[in-house]
Amino acid sequence: MLNTMVLVRTDNFQKASIALADLVRYGRMNIRGDPRIIPPALSDWAFEKISGEKPRKKFRAHVVAQIDLPPSKAIGRLMDIHPPAHILVIPPDTEVHRELLRLWGTFEKLRGFHPPKRTKTEELRKKGEELDEV
Fold it and tell me: Which H, E and C letters describe 12-51, residue by residue?
């Protein structure tokens, strides 16, 4: 099964790291592997293909990461939080996803990103969710 991807577009890589940490902590998403830095032109192309409109604002930092949720759940959770970046969910069955996956090994890893540690409350909540699914 292919993982859903998220495209983070923001002013700098520090904000991109904060946005990814917010996805983990508040959006309860797990980031699979290392987030990658992608070229601005590829990010603009992906944005245009997924959203259907041209980007209005130019950003300096463009990061893509794989997450462990289906696209519909990821979008729902993303709407509940307000990370300091523009984030776009890329479903696995799209041309954009296939192209990003094809180029994945050529992208530079985002340095300095470490998923936030979970508190005991978060661990208990996660265990409760896993038990509910069974």
Answer: CHHHHHHHHHHHHHCCCCCEEEEEEECCHHHHHHHHHHHH
- For residue 118, the one-letter residue type is R
Q: Where are the alpha helices (DSSP H) in the chain?
A: 13-25, 40-51, 71-80, 95-103, 120-133
Closest-CA residue to 101 (of 19, 33, 27, 15): 33
* CA dihedral (64, 3, 82, 124) positive or negative: negative
CA angle 106–109–113, rounded 5-degree value = 165
60: helix, strand or coil: coil
Confidence (pTM): 0.82
Residues 30, 22: Cα–Cα separation, whole Å? 11
Residue 17 φ then ψ, to 5°:
-65, -40
Kindly tell me if the per-residue pLDDT of 134 is higher than 80: no
